[in-house]
Amino acid sequence: xxxxxxxxxxxxxxxxxxxxxxxxxxxxxxxxxxxxxxxxxxxxxxxxxxxxxxxxxxxxxxxxxxxxxxxxxxxxxxxxxxxxxxxxxxxxxxxxxxxxxxxxxxxxxxxxxxxxxxxxxxxxxxxxxxxxxxxxxxxxxxxxxxxxxxxxxxxxxxxxxxxxxxxxxxxxxxxxxxxxxxxxxxxxxxxxxxxxxxxxxxxxxxxxxxxxxxxxxxxxxxxxxxxxxxxxxxxxxxxxxxxxxxxxxxxxxxxxxxxxxxxxxxxxxxxxxxxxxxxxxxxxxxxxxxxxxxxxxxxxxxxxxxxxxxxxxxxxxxxxxxxxxxxxxxxxxxxxxxxxxxxxxxxxxxxxxxxxxxxxxxxxxxxxxxxxxxxxxxxxxxxxxxxxxxxxxxxxxxxxxxxxxxxxxxxxxxxxxxxxxxxxxxxxxxxxxxxxxxxxxxxxxxxxxxxxxxxxxxxxxxxxxxxxxxxxxxxxxxxxxxxxxxxxxxxxxxxxxxxxxxxxxxxxxxxxxxxxxxxxxxxxxxxxxxxxxxxxxxxxxxxxxxxxxxxxxxxxxxxxxxxxxxxxxxxxxxxxxxxxxxxxxxxxxxxxxxxxxxxxxxxxxxxxxxxxxxxxxxxxxxx
Length: 623
Description:
Radius of gyration: 23 Å
Largest sheet: 11 strands, mixed
Strand order of the largest sheet: 7-9-8-12-14-13-20-21-18-16-17
């Protein structure tokens, strides 16, 4: 027997078998970071079609997948390793210390009442900028409170804003090649909701600060009267939308104008946002580049100024990745914090529903509206009371300075361009200088194992949800990159899934030990800025595991382990592409990451750059 520490993984070699040391016995000082690159072909067009046909073939497909998994050490991790921990089939969280300077909310309360409490947590509102017509003023997104002020002051109405919105969407829909933001949209329905909101303002009976605020819903979330297609050409044939998802109904009760269903990477099984079925949504900052996925349309419609907020889902960074690439705010809540009823993937253990907004302030308001665990999750997870940072008090300012930030430097710096890590490092320096935040060096073992455990978990759970619908060869109607992912997922066995859950428990142990020393783990959101769209990828799709690895490098703990995380814009690279910074919090501690995100946005991130494709629907201008 030989004790080895290799690629972060301490184990005892016994013949061909590896026996891991228990996580509690791992010597953290011996952990070495090894940059990990996903090995696989980059294919589009004819070669992607051919590769998928081979991957789906009974014998040769199995050989291809075995080779691909061996090249990325999946077999070694899952089949040739003895993992001493018991499986953790969904995130299990120990009790957490309470957060300072917060306002607690009632999960069972009315959404509009929670939103009113959230409004009271925000700093005083200054309406002056809404009346300034100076074109030389720095660019800023209109906040939800700007719209509410304009409505109440009779500067405009939701119906007038609706006409501006409809004109902008018609322009988007006439682009060639197609690059739709919405794949289910009814202008009559938008006008009807806006007219009802306009009447409420006329009567002085608006439902909440969200009344008349334009919001979009990702296509894997039920929203009447629209079909839920999940970005496919067939899912609506097997899934009838009878009522709103719980999160959508909560927004509707607050008076939000729900404009339609946003484009997405088909079935959520991709990181770029490519969709050969309806057309690929373009990045508003650089239309020749991807938005990121899978909540591509949700991020782009917010970044374009057409909606103040959009709902997305996040099972592998699918809110945070496009938010980072499009320069907006993406909030992934703690697993179980929001009710998943009415979503395409409603029974998994890695995905949540969350928000994409233009600002942190708006993220707080939307979060207050949609939060609330399902009855089953309250029993199994025992969630702490949801809290919001009270940004109006002096205590809140001191609470920012008391936050301990964990940084794993070697991981932090493992990016495609040092512009990303340099910009995020600058933010940490500013937080130290302006707020007194302390940055503490941490080590996170077994990051490659986390990637493996995540892909086995999310892939197996997605396939379990989709298998009943893959009758009559419907899977053959999916895009080629989706079919390739499904072919890989079908090779995972029950023992692979259990091994992944054993790894989940190990990784949870490591992270909870880190959270005894720090409050928030800080990373770049993505390892690269928005990738270029290959012209050959538009009609057939694209698979590029190297790009996926760069985009997903920092996001997986939020999904596999269920932690809350937020991506906040912090600047741009030399090409003008947005850079996002990720804040990963302790379980149920959304208030802490929202507080720090607000401080970054307010005092550290610098001026925003106006996207190339931007519409001012409040005043009715394309800028």
